Amino acid sequence: MRKIHSKQFGYQSSDNKRFCRSKYKISWLPISLLLLLLLVTTTSLQHVLAELVTENAGTTLVKLIDESSEPLSEIATADLGGLLERIGDSRVVLLGEATHGTAEFYDMRARITRELIEKKGFTIVALEADWPDAVIIDQFIRGPGIRGQARIPVQHYRPFTSFPDWMWANHSFMAFTRWLKHYNQQVEATEGVVSIYGLDLYNIYRSIDMVVDYLNYLDPEAADAARWYYSCMKRWPRDPSQYSHMMQSRNDTGCSAGVSAVLNILQKNMTAYSVIDKQAYFNAEQNARLVVNGERYFRTLYHEENTSWNQRDSNMLESLNAILQHHPAEKVIIWAHNSHIGDARAVQIAHAGKHNLGQLVRETFDDDSYHIGFGTDHGTVAAATTWKGPMVIMQVPSSHKDSYEYLFHQAKHDNFLLPLRQPDNAELTDRLMTKRMQRAIGVTYDPDNEIERHYYYALLPYQFDEYIWFDETQAVKPLSQSN
User: Fold this and answer.
1) How far apart, in whole angstroms, are the C-alpha atoms of residue 20 and residue 40?
2) Distance between alpha carbon 139 and the CA centroid of its chain, in Å?
3) How many domains is the chain built from?
4) Which of 57-61, 120-124, 389-393, 456-460 is predicted with the least confidence, judged by mean pLDDT?
5) CB under 8 Å to 200, separation ≥6 — which residues?
6) Longest pairwise C-alpha distance within the chain
């Protein structure tokens, strides 16, 4: 290629310089104004082009979502073959929810769970519910007369009577438990019977009552000792947060020694007790363990270095491990909020040193777990305006424009499954790895302060292996007191 010499364009002869100076009188003011106008025009043009590029990039990402997603029609008839294939041989499947009061989330989790039970051999359902409440449901679906059922009854207790009762005492979940009961009645082998367990620790007083009832049945002398040890916690039977407030001004271990002593009584007598009824012993031991963990949770709730979030989710993993040790060859499905089952390392709470069940499960089971998040753009939700307040049906407004929800709202299909671990279009995962906002509605909801209270930043493909989207959703229907 011919090289352009600098003299051809870079310099002028001395005659030319004289010509320019003598023939033309140059005024620099108009030139300066012209340059300024050119700069402003260029900046505006760049801004317009940037907007066009951004809009085009968003459109392209939506197109990638359309190409990679699997549309859903009706929940009851949706083809879940692709999802089951992606789940593969995973031992732990985690099913999330973006709220604690959306009917579509419950109904879809029930549908997926039924498929996993019937086609993949799953036999355990673990809930973001308190252990003693789940024990009552477990006895309902497994008895009387169904193999594997504990012989020590708990039917005199009513489940889910404390806040937030609608979270499990709703028509969607009741229909699912009736299906489980019918399924168990048809199972021929003990190994195929489905169990329900709880992973949470809030209802420690119900756990205390169940431990004492169990010991009364087997060992009245040990029951008397348990009552004495538990009497420390029983001073606040209606609200354990009162214990939290009292311990805020004290620097001691509170009731921890007494509740630990009861767990020790059970574990010392494990062989003798479990021979009589293995399942009943397991429930009693886990209730006693939950009282120990629950006492520590409430005792440290208002400490300066509050670790209550980590304590709660660590307890969930501890409960899960105990369940799988009790059922060593079985597979488990977990129902919990997105904030618990997604990987905490992919959301902003990780910066505060917090972990969650999803992260702990991934660290424990690696690719042997499959995490499925859920989302919605708008609709209605069952929630309370304040902690322990009454449930009300509230409107969920359309999502924030900087959120994942807003992105999915623009997709072609209203409802769909979106594989994230092994997407058909690998480019999708990379494009979704841009940090965006994500909405989370718990048992309380403040739609007037959504940004501050109900959104956090996340990296969706790292958080979940799959995402299920319902553009418009409806609130769950709570059960009446008679139900």
Assistant:
1) 29
2) 26
3) 1
4) 57-61
5) 127, 128, 129, 130, 131, 312, 315, 316
6) 119
Cβ neighbours around 386 below 10 Å, total: 8
CA distance 173 to 334: 14
What's the pTM? 0.86
Residue 246 within any structural domain of the chain:
no
β-pairing, 466-473 with 92-95?
Answer: unpaired
Model confidence pLDDT, tens digit, residues 168-227: 999 999 999 999 999 999 988 777 899 999 999 999 999 999 999 999 999 999 999 999
Domain presence at residue 16: yes
Structural domain of residue 35, as residue ranges?
Answer: 6-58
Name beta bridge partners: 94. Answer: 334, 371
* Nearest residue to 347 (alpha-carbon basis) of 190, 227, 455: 455
For 279-285, what is the mean pLDDT?
95
pLDDT at 33 over 60: no
The rounded distance, in Å, linking the Cα atoms of 105 and 472 is 11
Assess contact for 467 and 460: CB atoms under 8 A.
yes
Residue 244: pLDDT above 90? Answer: no
Query: Does the residue 37 lie in any domain?
Result: yes
Which residues lie closer than 8 Å to 375 by C-beta, 6 or more apart? 98, 338, 404, 405, 408, 438, 439, 467, 468, 469, 470
**DSSP string of 385-404?**
SSTTPPEEEEEEPPPPTTBH
**Is 244 part of any domain?**
no
